[in-house]
Write a structure and sequence with these properties.
The complex is a heterodimer of chains A (about 450) and B (about 475). The mean pLDDT of chain A is about 95. In chain A, strands 3-2-1-4-5-6 form a six-stranded antiparallel beta sheet. A six-stranded mixed beta sheet of chain A has the order 10-9-8-13-20-19, covered by helices on one side. Chain A has a five-stranded mixed β-barrel with strand order 7-14-15-17-21. With about 450 residues, chain A is of the alpha+beta class. Chain A is built from ten helices and 21 strands. Chain B has about 475 residues and is an alpha+beta fold. Chain B is built from ten helices and 24 strands. Chain B starts with a helix and ends with a strand. The chains are: A alpha+beta (about 450), B alpha+beta (about 475). At the A-B interface, β1, β2, β3, α2 and α4 of A face β2, β3, α2, α3 and β17 of B.
Chain lengths: ~450, ~475
């Protein structure tokens, strides 16, 4: 399935050249070649088991200041010709965009090793079934209350090539293995839920037994969940929650939302907004996360400090938004404008147990679910807790509670950050990005409702 | 094409399959978007391929490829067979498909004007005009984005039972979103994708996007200085487009049979509408009749056959307030021993069919909207979604809306902002005491419904009219 560096760059380069022949003043071609396999399980049985091989070409056809984007997954010569003609005819009818200056100039890209792991790329359906079985056996063996094991194990290999007519010629390949589970336990007519998961470039690094045990312990531990009075509580958030919350904070770190005036960061760069405990950067070259050497415009990744000791420092740029602010691209071109792609939150010195022992009256939350923005400028979000929520009183976990609805501002929650976990957890974001986040404790979070 | 489908089916059967199907799909789409009067993106995509699904030893396997050639079809079918055999290692029981009559048929979305034949220039003019009518009103209107989407899916379905079906589905939408920033406030107003419907460019021509955008701009400005929503338990009249999302989240998803049987537990969640409740659980008041209707003209979830070759159906999910049926496919209906309700849908050639919504419609009753407001002594009218969230069993929900008005002594009075309502699904629908009549009933679309692993995005429809819900908790999503 792998086409290899030379073939990918040659094919993308051919499309770029065809565009120039047809009158493009600049052209950019993105090629993604991938093979993805996913084994899905529920009710402690494999119920969906799928595979896919695909190749896609995306062309940005630039005609002066007119730009069209066309795509196809047919690489035959006739189809490539048709793709380029589509791009050309679309660009011709556009009005000029005065804010477009140029596609990016090439920059040297230092290769990253270890992104492509053969065992992940060549993982068979039988191997995936064996890993799923190991996870299920561990979960069911932990407690007779464990009744249903659900989740998914995926193994993906992909190649990304970005070529433009100014000389960008970027290529890398990567694999991704992802295992997550949700376990349902039952006892005397009540249900408990627990989750766990892990992600890695190497499928060999995923430990299904550990993941099964962790989720089963949460599930059984959440049996008999009770109703509590809603309101403000201290909170201890597991890394799954922190990852979800950072997703909402990071939408305001895009130069596009900053330039539009819709980002929470507008007028706040350089001011103290969050707790000093909160430091966040983006680093696509840090191999503790799902590193990748360049962005979707072929611009190299580097470390960029975004929030330092509670003070917002910078936004991320692609070439378009960078030109507008007379800045340089920070290497964060995404599919829908610039966005952080490899967030890393600075770790602290607390273990989760210490965070719990430091909590007088609070809630331990495993996961967020169905989170939506209520007010983007204030980063007010609403959503539900899921797969394990517990009441903490006087430094001890008292009992599980039914899923809670929250409606609160993350400016406030991360402004009241008290403790940050010692361990970082790698979270997935697709083949080309992800996060590394710790658990946290905040002094306040508002719960506004509860599931019956 | 039939020689290709035949090759897949024969290869699957000779590999030990007791059932096999193949879908060959080509999707064309065109998305044009503008920002403050300038075209920011013209994106034209073409995507094709095939997917083969096989049932071996009572377990499923699926594989797919973008290369539609005889050799690749054979290779991919053999891979699907290998995958199915691996699935069978962890099965508890055999998959038993609900029966379906093998059909040879065709379906094509009826349309008057092919959206892909309309010159790009004409579409661009509409979008730029829409933005200009917004940003020319005030400096406080910082952002106006407009967009148009055209989508066409051509597909061939064949299975080992003898079905052979070709379909072509076309849908269109036009959208506008306005952001006003001023007086320390930030407000959005949109005319969004809920206007998506199956059909041709006549849908766009019937919208008058510039006029809609202009109105949105005026409303966004008013919202900047509107009062915040007071916190109270009150009667709420939910407007049509917001109610469409309410139906989607609190009726459509919990009536998906795969969720109820635990198949989505790790991702989308399960459902409070468990199998033991079917036919007897009071889901809502007697005013509440909700039907899954894939046959209704123009609906975004309208088709001829689902992706298992089952003909489009009209099925009551909620009748007189009682939960009576599920959305289902052949796998899960077979598990329950009932017929499929024809709701198996795949987002493309590279995805398996899942149980999805079609058009989930709240049937109209007999209220005039003005009469309903007049009949409401104290309450709030809430329109157009701003935020939405619901728990993994589809019980606890919270929706924020863009525009809301207080109702005092039977009249709409003050405009209020940041309004949020929250509730528990059966309690909320149980409090519904009035639904407006057919004159106020409209087909809305939800073009971006997500589900499954790997993820799938599906286009579904919802017909609704405004309805009243007694004693609902409302508050401001911002001042708390």
């Amino acid at each position: 399935m792998i086409k290899g560096k030379e073939n990918c760059l040659e094919l993308a380069g051919k499309v770029s050249k065809e565009a120039l022949k047809l009158g493009a003043t600049q052209a950019e071609v993105r090629l993604v070649n991938s093979a993805s396999y996913l084994t899905r399980f529920a009710g402690s049985t494999i119920h969906q088991n799928v595979g896919e091989t695909n190749i896609s070409l995306t062309l940005r056809f630039v005609l002066g200041k007119r730009i069209s984007t066309v795509s196809s997954n047919d690489t035959s010569p006739e189809s490539i010709k048709e793709l380029v003609e589509r791009g050309c005819s679309a660009a011709k009818v556009l009005e000029e965009d005065p804010e477009f200056i140029s596609l990016p100039e090439p920059q040297p890209i230092k290769e990253l090793r270890g992104l492509y792991v053969k065992e992940t790329a060549e993982c068979t359906p039988d191997t995936r079934a064996e890993m799923v079985k190991a996870l299920m056996d561990e979960a069911h063996g932990l407690s007779p209350h464990v009744k249903e094991v659900a989740g998914a194990l995926s193994a993906t290999s992909s190649e990304l090539a970005v070529v433009n007519s100014l000389g960008v010629n970027a290529y890398s390949r990567a694999t991704l293995a992802d295992l997550d589970t949700t376990i349902i336990s039952r006892d005397a007519g009540v249900e408990g839920f627990g989750t766990a998961g892990d992600v890695s470039r190497s499928i060999k690094e995923l430990d299904p037994v550990k993941i099964g045990r962790e989720a089963a312990e949460r599930s059984v531990g959440s049996l008999g969940a009770r109703t509590i009075e809603v309101g403000d509580y201290e909170v201890v958030f597991e890394p799954y929650v922190v990852s979800s919350a950072l997703g909402y904070i990071s939408s305001g770190l895009s130069a596009r939302s900053y330039q539009d005036g819709t980002s929470w960061m507008c007028d706040l760069i350089g001011q103290k907004v969050f707790s000093e405990q909160f430091t966040l950067w983006d680093d696509g070259r840090d191999l503790s996360g799902l590193a990748f050497p360049f962005d979707l415009e072929g611009i190299p990744k580097r470390k960029l400090m975004l929030i330092e000791e509670g003070v917002p420092k910078a936004v991320v740029y692609d070439s378009y938004t960078a030109h507008k602010d007379k800045e340089k691209s920070t290497g964060h071109a995404g599919g829908m404008g610039p966005s952080p792609s490899h967030l890393i939150m600075r770790r602290g010195d607390s273990m989760k147990e210490e965070m719990i022992s430091e909590t007088k009256k609070g809630i331990l939350v495993t996961s967020f679910w169905y989170v939506r923005t209520v007010h983007a400028k204030k980063i007010i979000i609403t959503g539900m807790t899921r797969d394990g929520t517990w009441l903490i009183e006087n430094g001890e976990i008292k009992y599980p509670v039914k899923n809670l609805r929250f409606t609160d501002s993350l400016l406030k929650t991360f402004g009241n950050l008290e403790l940050v976990g010692k361990e970082g957890k790698r979270m997935g974001g697709g083949p080309y990005g992800g996060m590394v986040v710790p658990a946290i404790k905040s002094k306040t979070f508002l719960f506004t409702g509860q599931t019956p | 094409m039939e020689d290709l489908t035949h090759r897949a089916i024969e290869t699957a059967l000779s590999s030990g399959a007791t059932y096999a199907d193949i879908r060959i799909v080509e999707i064309n789409n065109q998305n044009i978007s503008s920002r403050n009067g300038k075209i920011r993106n013209v994106s034209i995509g073409k995507n094709k391929g095939f997917g083969v699904r096989v049932l071996i030893d009572g377990a499923w396997g699926f594989s797919s490829s973008c290369d539609i050639s005889p050799n690749t079809i054979e290779k991919v079918t053999l891979e699907a067979a290998k995958i199915a055999k691996a699935s069978a290692r962890l099965k508890k029981k055999d998959v038993r498909l609900a029966p379906a009559k093998p059909i040879r048929g065709t379906y094509k979305t009826p349309l008057k004007k092919d959206p892909f034949e309309v010159p790009l220039k004409d579409k661009i003019e509409i979008l730029i005009e829409a933005d200009k009518r917004v940003i020319s009103q005030s400096n406080l209107l910082k952002l106006s984005t407009s967009s148009m989407n055209h989508y066409r899916e051509g597909k061939v379905f064949a299975n080992s039972e003898g079905a052979y079906i070709t379909q072509e589905i076309t849908w269109c939408s036009a959208n506008s979103r306005v952001t006003a920033i001023g007086y320390g406030e930030y407000q959005d107003r949109s005319f969004d994708g809920r206007n998506a419907r199956t059909g041709g460019y006549e849908i766009i021509e019937g919208i008058d996007l510039p006029a809609r955008a202009e109105e949105s701009g005026k409303e966004a400005l008013k919202l900047l200085t509107a009062k915040n929503c007071p916190e109270m338990i009150t009667d709420v009249i939910v407007g049509g487009s917001q109610l469409a999302l309410q139906v989607h989240e609190s009726t459509g998803h919990p009536t998906e049979l795969d969720r109820a049987l635990g198949a989505e537990a790790a991702m989308a969640g399960t459902s409070f509408l468990t199998v033991d409740k079917m036919g007897k659980f009071r889901y809502g008041s007697k005013e509440v009749n909700i039907v899954a209707d894939a046959t209704i003209p123009d609906g975004l979830g309208t088709f001829g056959y689902d992706d298992e070759g089952v003909p489009a159906q009209r099925v009551y999910l909620i009748k007189g307030g009682i939960f009576v049926n599920y959305l289902s496919d052949r796998t899960f209906a077979g598990e329950l021993g009932v017929p499929s309700t024809g709701a198996a849908r795949a987002s493309g050639w590279n995805r398996i069919p899942l149980v999805r919504m079609t058009n989930i419609n709240l049937e109209p009753r007999n209220w005039e909207f003005d009469e309903l407001v007049k009949d409401t002594k104290k309450g709030i009218y809430m329109e157009t979604n701003r935020s939405w969230s619901i728990d993994d069993k589809r019980l606890n929900f919270q929706f924020g809306t863009q525009m809301s008005y207080l109702i005092e002594k039977g009249e709409l009075t003050d405009l209020i902002k940041n309004a949020v309502y929250t509730g528990i699904t059966p309690e909320f629908w149980g409090s519904c005491d009035a639904v407006c009549n057919k004159k106020h009933w409209h087909m809305w679309g939800t073009p971006g419904c997500g589900k499954g692993q790997p993820g799938q995005v599906m286009y579904v429809g919802h017909g609704t009219a405004p309805a009243r819900f007694r004693n609902t908790r409302v508050f401001s999503g911002v001042t708390r």
